[in-house]
Amino acid sequence: MSLIVQKFGGSSVADAEGIKRVSARIAETRKAGHDVVVVVSAMGDTTDELIDLAESVSTVPAPREMDMLLTAGERISMALVAMAIRSLGISARSFTGSQAGMITDEKHGAARIVDVTPGRVREALDEGDVAIVAGFQGFNRATGDITTLGRGGSDTSAVALAAALNADVCEIYTDVDGIFTADPRVVKKAHKINRVTSEEMLELAANGAKVLYIRAVEFARRHGVTIHVRSSFNHNEGTIVYNPTEGQTVEEPIITGVAGDLSEAKIVVVGVPDVPGTAAKIFTIIANAGINIDMIVQNVSAAATGLTDISFTLPKTEGKKALAALDGAKAELSFADVVYDDEIGKLSVVGAGMRTNAGVSAQLFTALSDAGINIEMISTSEIRISVITSDADLTRAMQVVHTAFGLDSTEEAQVHGGTGR
Amino acid sequence: MSLIVQKFGGSSVADAEGIKRVSARIAETRKAGHDVVVVVSAMGDTTDELIDLAESVSTVPAPREMDMLLTAGERISMALVAMAIRSLGISARSFTGSQAGMITDEKHGAARIVDVTPGRVREALDEGDVAIVAGFQGFNRATGDITTLGRGGSDTSAVALAAALNADVCEIYTDVDGIFTADPRVVKKAHKINRVTSEEMLELAANGAKVLYIRAVEFARRHGVTIHVRSSFNHNEGTIVYNPTEGQTVEEPIITGVAGDLSEAKIVVVGVPDVPGTAAKIFTIIANAGINIDMIVQNVSAAATGLTDISFTLPKTEGKKALAALDGAKAELSFADVVYDDEIGKLSVVGAGMRTNAGVSAQLFTALSDAGINIEMISTSEIRISVITSDADLTRAMQVVHTAFGLDSTEEAQVHGGTGR
Questions:
Q1: Could A53 and B16 be called an inter-chain contact, meaning their C-beta atoms sit closer than 8 Å?
Q2: Per-residue pLDDT, B383
Q3: CATH superfamily entry for domain A3-249
Q4: What is the pTM of this model?
Q5: Measured distance CA(A342)–CA(A340) in Å, rounded
Q6: Spatial contact of B408 and B189, defined as CB atoms under 8 Å apart
Q7: What superfamily does domain B3-174 belong to in CATH?
Q8: Which CATH architecture has domain B248-421?
Q9: Highest mean pLDDT among A282-296, B64-78, B311-325
Q10: In whole angstroms, what is the distance from residue A171 CA to residue A186 CA?
Q11: ipTM of the predicted assembly exceeds 0.95
Q12: Which of B62, B82, B93 lies nearest to residue A83, judging by beta carbons?
């Protein structure tokens, strides 16, 4: 008998039919003899509807009240799931985030989990009940107020509960079959990955793979939680995201997957003095504006002028803010110009086997060059290589790289539903 | 400076417009220098929609989960009201029933308030905030579970908070101008009552007046809370429901109001032995079936047979259950027949002045007799006389009695909106 945490997103519980389908699945797991903890999101569009309501009564809704409002969403879905399970003859009890002991800091709208004290959940399990827990929400002890975790919150709730309860696995149900070697809507011959380390998953998620949120993967990695990403529409095995134990010999494919990302823009600060401290100055200004940057490249200095260019990428949504910050510091930085380009795409190849295999970069650059695709920037980590191309080239780049690294499946991927969230 | 509790029902906060209108009213009270605690119900049809959802996933929804589900309703409205008030420049904070210290027993769906510990509400007031509290909901300490108070719950929440906070007045906002001498839709010349004792109000509410729930009035009476029933559509004074202090000389009109009720049915148990204990047996059987009865009349025994008839009234909704209970005890009771009649109406006249004024019954019976209206049963309390007529006669009976006791206004009542709830 195992202890299994199962997380169902808003699209899985969008209506009465979805709730009944999900509940049958939960009942099945329970009947197989497992202890089951379920984490649910709000039904379908509930959250968006509540946000619309808030904006219709207040131009800038107070964050504390916004959290109070939005947490009604999971309250509805969790109670309905508990009822539906009970009507299948399985005892079940629902718990709000605060009842389940999801203790957070007090940052409304984007709270961080600081502790999980799931005493009541454990008690319910001990009494033979399935415990249904509201995802996305928590409770701040100092203020006594309800909080929400922000984007990807329900995945994080599920992983945090799995860690606190020492669950055998945290199953994240979605409308795709698992994690793929590339987005199957872009690369038709992408195939499902059976196993991936949390380290690789982090790189994939951070570089455009949308099935799992980075926060949840980070939490799983830090706390040794095994995640199983799988479809709620069939019983196929999905993708296991695991944490190799120290010294464990793992069969590490050189390349696990290819990710694409169109959400970034590039800024080039042109003609800055090539002296120590210039880059530090620029990125201090950017950081002080609250902007997270991704890739950084500093060109070789043109010896004659003593000037250089510094390029970096950042979320498109932060573009304006960054330009304003740089503009405000023009005197201090003494640059010649700032060039902004939001027509870029980022391609990343990820694989833990890279560590011990030279030549991966060469193979990647050759594949792109053969396809006539220009590379504007390069950045690497131990297990990832990312390149910036034009946005128009990204899809083709993903396809040729997927083929070049031998990832192509012999059959086309089955895609259910929409975006995978 | 006073401490005022204001309660707004679901129809007042049915949409964004309603929420903004109500919030402006609350802000106005706060700006006048008062401390304000607001109790809100769920928006418009939210509760019905949630019940529909529950019934679509489960034929008999678990009561604990039903309470978890329904309490999402006030959570939404209270957060929206708090946001709307804040956007008017008035600081405000919302509290769930459990945050506001509404401690109840554990009877899901119909919980009783056992204690109110509004520490956080008091703190919010001390810090200058308007406190918005979810009506209808509470919290059971023993189980740690969320409960709901059942019908009339939000009125009761408001009165209970007013009592615990020692508020100066509990304002119950509705869509009529206050309590009327009779339902203005039935008696066109009904007029608003300015002041009524809680004792009279109890009799009116218990006998068909629908503006205030009995539970809330009972609570107000027991804890000395003054209620002000008024319209949320204008600034007119409504009706004050007050508790005369011991020995206080009150100007008591002989008749305060006339109430009509079409929700009851009559059962006559025909031909039971006219011996001590027969009535006790019948009503023990009815009570054991969980049925509350209202009026009881035992006819004079026909001396020749030694048999008598016993009649009583009960809610129509309990009719079937009562007939089945009597049928099951036919041998024990040895009655000849049971007659069921659900085409009855109950007319009640209420007035604290009755205590010291003889002749009220005679005046009532004369008025009805002059109008050719037959009386089937009579029951009286110290400050009320009720009679059963046919349902077809009830409206006319209310009109002639209203006139006979000099209650008619010179102008027709203004009726806003619908049912007064």
A1: yes
A2: 87
A3: Acetylglutamate kinase-like (3.40.1160.10)
A4: 0.82
A5: 7
A6: yes
A7: Acetylglutamate kinase-like (3.40.1160.10)
A8: 2-Layer Sandwich (3.30)
A9: B64-78
A10: 26
A11: no
A12: B62
